[in-house]
Amino acid sequence: MGVKKYYASKDNTITNAFKANLLTRGSGSNMGASDIIETFVIHGQTSTSLSLPPSEGNADAAEQSRMIIQFPTADVVSDMAAGVLPSTASNIKFYLNLYNAPHGSTVPLDFSLDVYMLSEAWTEGRGLDMDNYTDLGQSNWIRPTSALLWTQAGGTYLPAADTKKTIELTTGLENISLDVSTQIYKWLDSSEANNGFLIKFPDAIVSGSDSYYTKKFFSRTSEFELYRPTLEARWDSSRKDNRADFYISSSVATGEDNQNTLFMYNFVRGELKSLPTLVNDRMSVDIYSGSAAPSGNALNMVADTDGTILTSVTGTLLVENGAQVTGIYTASFASTSSFDTIFDVWHTGSGGSRINFMTGSYIPKPVNTTDGIHEEEYQTTLTNLEDVYTKGQKPTLRLFTRKKNWNPNIYTVATSQVVPAIIEDAYYRVFRVIDNFEVIPYGTGSTNNNFTRLSYDVSGNYFELDTSCLATGYAYGVEFVYYLQGEYLEQPEVFKFRIKEEDK
């Protein structure tokens, strides 16, 4: 599962808006414990003749509310080191997710919000009052902490263009899902200190004459778990084992497309374990023809896209997220051999010291060229989905997919095993059934890092579902979309399950 959610470690709303008396500003108020964060701009509520103390600012200045929020990037670093995330940050896209909080006040239309990186550390505070600004404390419009003043009232932020992001809103009721990868990279490589984000209306609106009141989001203390702010890491975690869809090299395909990858899984007493006798986790892989077993001499393979011809290629431990995966080995090559069955022999050593670890097999397929476009429809089943999961479980869910128009005769059903169809570009989404709230969207396309793309092996497609990002007490649905012949085709099947409380 190529998605990991990190919840905000602190958030707050800071404001210089006037209190109900329209005589003093709430610049010293704190709202760090509220279940809402809020941003707005108000013009023209007071007389220009109103005199305010210096600490309250200019009476004519726009009333503003800004949101500040911070995420635990130290947890991201730890997960990268542990192999939970890719070890190279550039392989991950990071999204800031904020969820609209409905309210009874007016809602601005057709506006944008700017997202900056804060340059000064701040405390969250325990204030609650978002109406009369009676809860004093820090952080606030004037102070990030009790001991310091903001260098720039309203939150000091980095002005550089590459640290700023802007998001457009139309109805004012939208959720926000914003790519903030550039900013997160700066925190991860320590080129900037992680002081969190500041979210506000653009300067052009602040210096203008039109009011925009009010945009609210759920905060980190909201009782609604799925609506709390998150920093979402997305990456492609799919594995592609071509044993069931090994294609013969063809002039109509590129060198890269002619390459196939085979996997060897070393299970010992039901657990994946790495082979203890290998040097640098490397072995040799030979391929042979044969009817029921390998025979004759090893066949030629093309190991690289540059056309290098070898009779043996190197198999190595699978590397994912910058770390080796226990007990799973891979070898990639191309082959022009078109025998009915090909055998792959994984081994180390030679002659009398040779040790064979596994002999697998595959049936090579030709690359299809046709006289027209033939659309295929599929039927999909989740073969091992359970009705109920405990929050935190990470089940590996397997699909059985076959062509919808498959009509076997009685003899075929009785004598042949049904082979699942492999969908090379398949994606899933997870939603809450009661309101169709999308917890994990389809992660299609390079802009999303294909983060929900399904893996596949000889038994079909599969994916790991991390239930830690799902709220307890609800039913959820899983749906799939297949990318076929240049189109994303959503499949009609919906598979449902429920999340219960974690076992104590």
List keywords for this structure.
504 residues, Immunoglobulin-like, mainly beta, 31 strands, seven-stranded antiparallel beta sheet, 6% helix, 5 helices
What would a concise description of this structure say?
By secondary structure, the protein is mainly beta. The chain is built from five helices and 31 strands. It folds into three domains: 3-234, no CATH class; 246-362, Sandwich (Immunoglobulin-like); 378-500, Macroglobulin (MG2) domain (Immunoglobulin-like, Sandwich).
Q: Can you put this structure into words, describing what you see?
A:
The protein has 504 residues and is mainly beta. It has three domains: 3-234, no CATH class; 246-362, Immunoglobulin-like (Sandwich), CATH 2.60.40; 378-500, Sandwich (Immunoglobulin-like). Helices cover 6% and strands 35% of the residues. It is built from five helices and 31 strands. Strands 2, 3, 4, 6, 7, 9 and 10 form a seven-stranded antiparallel beta sheet that branches. The chain has a six-stranded antiparallel beta sheet with strand order 12-19-18-15-20-21, with no helix packed on it. A hairpin with a 2-residue loop joins strand 18 and strand 19. The longest helix has 9 residues, at 73-81. It is elongated. The protein starts with a strand and ends with a strand.
